[in-house]
Amino acid sequence: MADLIYQVDSLVKSYNGRQVLSVPALEVQRGEILGLVGPSGAGKSTFLRLLNFLEAPSAGRIAFAGRWFGQPDTLPLALRRRAVLVFQRPVLLSGSVFDNVAYGLRIRGCRNVRSTVEAVLARIGLLHLKRAASHTLSGGELQRVALARALVVEPEVLLLDEPTANLDPAHVRAIEAMIMETNQAAGTTVVIVTHNVFQARRLAQRVGLLVGGRLVEVAPAQEFFESPQTEEACAFVRGDMIY
After folding, report:
1. pTM for the full model?
2. To the nearest 5 percent, what fractions of the chain are helix, strand and coil?
3. Is the model's pLDDT at 243 over the cut of 60?
4. To 10 degrees, the CA torsion angle through 38, 41, 45, 48?
5. 164 vs 75, 141, 188, 222, 229, CA distance in Å?
6. pLDDT at residue 242, as a whole number
7. DSSP 3-state assignment of 41?
8. Structural contact between residues 189 and 158, judged by C-beta atoms closer than 8 angstroms
9. CA separation (Å) from 53 to 3, 50, 83?
């Protein structure tokens, strides 16, 4: 289907015989922002890793841009590069901020690397740190560099794992504005994992709830927060602790 970027079918992920994720079915529309919420340990980060094809499912399959990927399969590098994951605890390469952000462009053989990198660093408020060594950065600066490193390659899909967890309110607003701008101006599909329900409500068109490794509800954001359908979603929206 031309309007779908992801399709998930009977997806299961297990480690050492313990099932940590079960998603019977999910479709992600091109150009949408999908928020994934739920308690710690619910399988949200694992799901992002599978969507980025960093790991293979234990059972089931995922389609990306119409091509199915299952347990024994690997996707061509050119296809995998269309989706970029920003980890909750990103690791930078040794070297400068500029070198880190430029890396993806250089391995792709892109031109105009300097001007492209500087433009992204300016958007994210880090141009003044372009020559700074990566090991000197604060946690919030490191997180913003990781986001800049993802944005600079203009991915078709941006997968974000708690992208504002270490940021102050002003930088949270700036990063959220960049996510919205990237989605609206470039049509980038965004899947964002967040513990911040207010952030999910601000950014996402649809919200999915993972509990105990199970995807228990997916709905338009307003419907999810105002009239949830499952007991787990009702408890989550109320702010009750759920496991």
Report:
1. 0.91
2. 40, 30, 35
3. no
4. -70
5. 30, 11, 19, 22, 28
6. 58
7. coil
8. yes
9. 20, 5, 9
